[in-house]
Amino acid sequence: MNDDPCVLVESLKKSFPTGDTRLEVLKGLDLTLHWGEFTVVTGSSGSGKSTLLHILGGLDRIDSGRVSCCGISIGAMTEKQLSYFRRDYIGFIFQNHYLIDDLTVRENLVLPGLMNSRDKLEVEQAADSLIERVGLSERRSHFPQQLSGGERQRVAIARAFMNNPRIILADEPTGNLDEENTTIVMEMLMEIIGEKGKTLVLVTHDQELAKAGETIYRLKEGVLHKL
Ligand SMILES: Nc1ncnc2c1ncn2[C@@H]1O[C@H](COP(=O)(O)OP(=O)(O)OP(=O)(O)O)[C@@H](O)[C@H]1O
Ligand SMILES: [Mg+2]
User: Fold this and answer.
1) Predicted structure pTM score
2) Is residue 43 within 6 Å of ligand 1 at its C-beta?
3) Taking 80 as the threshold, does the pLDDT of residue 174 lie above it?
């Protein structure tokens, strides 16, 4: 770790085709993320929060500008380089968990580990340790549909840490949860982030949650405003 920014976004523009025109979503956005920093992005529905997170995670391309991670331009990467970038640097937590229904809790964690060409035994041990970390050891052979919403989100958090990524991108990880589960899930996420010194970008509508961020932005009219 050093003082160089972990992610640097400069003059980022992103639009989507809509009929004959294009919908301009991000309009020259700048953002600097430092290592180990906890950044929150808020903003109204449709303002482009998920779009920004997808771009940071190498899941979507940009129209113009520059997005670099550890000094490497993500925009210039081939699809193959992007997939390595995602595998090696990024842990994504989605609003709708996206667990694989046909796999157990443990298998949902083991899969991304094996995709990273790691030793099976080591991957299984890492999965078990993370499952324990999120308090679900008793549930490790359950399928996602046999879990509560909060439990599924805890599995999704554990999965995001499987390949020990340096950057965690969380898109409304508590969006579908009640207040009690929101607290449990957030405490768990914050504990693991703190322990492992990860860089976290959290997107949320929840004003209370937003206050936990070290740096808080509001995405409005295609650019970020520091709060
Ligand atoms: N693939 C796409 N094609 C066309 N339009 C899109 C696409 N993805 C997003 N958009 C549009 O871009 C805008 C920003 O979408 P985005 O999902 O980033 O918003 P958001 O801030 O995450 O909203 P929410 O809080 O509701 O999740 C929206 O108007 C959306 O309809
Ligand atoms: Mg969204």
Assistant:
1) 0.93
2) yes
3) yes
Query: Mean pLDDT for the chain?
Result: 92
49 lines ligand 1 (CB under 6 A): yes
Shortest-distance ligand to the CA of residue 46: 1
Residue nearest to ligand 1 atom 26, measured at CA? 45
The response to whether residue 46 sits with its C-beta less than 6 Å from ligand 1 reads: yes
Segment 146-153 long-range contacts (CB within 8 Å, at least 24 positions apart): 147/105, 148/181, 149/176, 149/177, 149/181, 150/177, 150/180, 150/181, 150/184, 150/185, 152/97, 152/99, 153/93, 153/97, 153/177, 153/181, 153/185
* Atom number in ligand 1 closest to CA 51: 18
- For residue 157, is pLDDT > 90? yes
Does the beta carbon of 29 lie inside 6 Å of ligand 1? no
For the chain, the structural domain boundaries read 7-226
CA distance linking residue 209 with residue 182, whole number of Å: 9
Q: Spell out the CATH class of 7-226.
A: alpha beta
Q: Which residue has 């991000």 as its token pair?
A: 26
